[in-house]
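To make the argument concrete, we let one protein speak, a sequence paired with a row of structure tokens, as a model reads it:
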Amino acid sequence: MKPEDELSGEDAGAIDIAFSGRLGTFDLDIAFRAPGKGVTALFGPSGCGKTSVLRSVAGLQRLAGHCRLGASIWQDETRYLPTHRRPIGYVFQEASLFPHLSVRGNLLFASKGKAPREGEALRRFEEAVELLGLTALLSRAPDTLSGGERQRVAIGRALLSDPRLLLMDEPLSALDKETREDILPYLERLHETLAIPVLYVTHDMAEVERLADHLVLLEKGRVRASGPLSALQADPDLPIARSRDAAVSLAGIVCGFDADYGLMELDVAGACFILPDPKGHDLADPVRIRVAAGDVSLCREVPGATSILNILPVTIVMARAINEREMLVQLALGHGDEKARLLSRLTRKSWDNLDLTEGGPCYAQIKSAALARQ
């Protein structure tokens, strides 16, 4: 069977990966399946195997196992496609641009230096340049660019290689905090517009919260958990939920406005959030928000006069003791088959005083000013 032959199964566009082997003194044994669209973040501390997974997917490092993208088999028991036969774009930690070429020349390198004149190639070039804000940089040399500008060019070059899979290996780790904040909006635009899947390696949860749809949590060369980002964020048994800055990323649709106060209403799984609208959205715009566990308080009844605008009916799904003083509570929000999940971090005294129980109803209180739009 050729690599292009179709595979059976309903999720023909999925990324299906399993690698195992010894790397020096480090044993890697991972397997996961990720969606065929959106950003899948490989997250974990330094040395857990994130970059080794990415290099193995690219064919830059050979380990036992298999690698499939939709109908294409890149590696299994009987075949191994070299890197040049794998339709990938690879963005490294530091942009490796050709110093003797202009920005335009670096972007065109993926098409063997030929300038796109018409049709699909020209459209893709113009879209990449506009998406990444590169129009004013096209004639400049790489050594005149800032770190963030160089990385944007590197991303554009990877996109213009016409990949079926984009690999990004900690693309912001070499940048300072201010530059990372400058480039994140460009990556968010990529997330909104790209039709191909992205494997994104990082050890920064803030990047995961803003960019990822799916999460693969790695620990010492193994997969600790894999699934939709919001589901793993809200799992009290995982370390990311137990961290002091734990939060859940929720996707919603703008469903209303209060123009007098600069607020918008966001439908999340049938529940309505009220939050500031600094950018002036339109109805039905998709918006993602970050809800920190420490910003969610609980009450048994709807409170009277209060400054808190978000008082949402929820069901307690599970509760775990973080230590002898604090509890971590997972909450089901909204209605229907696909309820959203929240986390609440509270003291054991509050849990006991309210007589809360798993499976029981209560209300989640969240200050509008605490909701961070992503």
